[in-house]
Amino acid sequence: MLLPMRKKTESAAPVVVIGAGMAGARLAARVPGVTVVGEERHAPYNRVLLADVLAGRYAPDVIALPATEVRRGVRAVRIDRADRLVHCDDGSVLHYGRLVLATGSNPVLPPLRGLGATLPDGVHPFRTLDDALALRTAVRPGARAVVIGGGLLGVSAARALAECGAQVVLAQQGEHLMERQLDPEAAALLRVHLEALGVEVHTECRVRGLRCPGTPPAVRAVQLGDGYELAADLTVLACGVRPRTGLARAAGLDVRKGIVVDDELRTSDPYIHALGDCAEHRSTLYGLAGPALEQADVLAEVLAGRPARYEGTRALTRLTLRSPDPVHALDLAAFGEARPLPGDDVIRLSDATRGAYRTVVLRDGRLAGGVLLGDLGAVAGLARTWQDDEPLPPAMSLLHLLTDDGGH
Length: 408
Ligand SMILES: Cc1cc2nc3c(=O)[nH]c(=O)nc-3n(C[C@H](O)[C@H](O)[C@H](O)COP(=O)(O)OP(=O)(O)OC[C@H]3O[C@@H](n4cnc5c(N)ncnc54)[C@H](O)[C@@H]3O)c2cc1C
Hints:
By secondary structure, the protein is of the alpha/beta class. The protein folds into 3 domains: 5-106 and 242-303, FAD/NAD(P)-binding domain (3-Layer(bba) Sandwich); 123-239, FAD/NAD(P)-binding domain (3-Layer(bba) Sandwich); 316-402, Enolase-like, domain 1 (2-Layer Sandwich), CATH 3.30.390. It is built from 9 helices and 25 strands. It has helices at residues 22-30, 50-54, 129-138, 152-163, 184-196, 246-250, 289-303, 379-388, 395-403, and strands at 15-18, 35-38, 71-72, 76-80, 85-88, 93-95, 98-101, 105-107, 123-125, 144-148, 167-171, 200-202, 207-211, 221-224, 229-231, 234-237, 241-243, 259-261, 272-274, 279-281, 316-321, 330-336, 345-351, 356-363, 366-373. A hairpin with a 2-residue loop joins β24 (356-363) and β25. The termini are far apart. The site of flavin-adenine dinucleotide (FAD) has 37 residues, from α1, β2, α2, α4 and α7.
């Protein structure tokens, strides 16, 4: 549908944001007077810290984001682009001058035997504060917990459940943990770390189904591809996420994997923007907090009528596995491509006594990616070099970059 260009008088028209997650809340903090509709019953919170809530380290109010006025517990159900209206499940209808979709993503429910649209008792996704609180209520010391998926989410969940005293098995289909971010050596160190906490890690382990007898059905075991069964009192699904695009698709916006946006975070409708996990920018879906916040900052400028463009984020993934006992804490950072291609150079430093590991991949005289584990002293310098995409200094300076502790 072709819509007329925005008239000058419309710049003061109301801004409505759908989704009060990390991107929506950041935008609301930057743009005065916006109306935010949020399906969750809680005030906006830092999703990255959910594992700390699950582990009992933080109370929910500790992870709250700076106060934002949100219509909580209200879900937007339809967008009427012709009249610029948002219909909500409480019967309210909001008029917008500009609409922002910040709907985030949904956990992927894997096609497992025994798993229908309604989750059996004991089977938990791990996306929201309610998910974390439900898991915390369900987990008892000695409970047998199986985490399906060994990515960032699965690793954080397994670690937090082990801290709650559960007997945890982590089932990862891929060859090693956190395949998107880590090289096999770093993943092996992470595995040692989890095993030291009592987590049993199975890699190249295909889960086929769940055994959930009873009415209502409740999980009793996780069935593996080789016929073996893992006894389970509870199961966490950590099999990735998918952008929440249903509203945008139903409204006829251009959606590929995510809602397609340009450098002003504008969708195929000039009155509607999208950002965060639900948005696809230059064919990239980030699924990370850093880019979502950066996009919100750019969009705040755009909505204020100031020139701003989002040109992509060279996203750094950081995972802090906190622990009351510092011996059991682990810091990890990964950026770019940690797996070398033929012809790439790799520099690696490994300090077995301190459990520290650093590796960088060099391609055509530039930094293509890297992983730091245990000691992140050098991360700031490396991340800056990577983000600037500058040609690299000579070998000695590069070694200095890898060993630089940032002056600490
Ligand atoms: C356990 C966990 C750990 C993570 N750890 C890290 C990490 O270490 N580092 C990192 O970079 N990233 C991490 N992430 C990812 C990060 O949290 C997301 O990238 C980030 O939250 C994206 O922000 P968002 O606002 O786009 O989406 P979200 O924060 O998911 O917010 C979307 C909000 O929109 C609401 N919503 C959706 N549809 C509607 C509707 N129709 N009406 C009303 N409301 C609606 C949802 O309920 C939700 O509250 C983690 C995620 C999880 C779940």
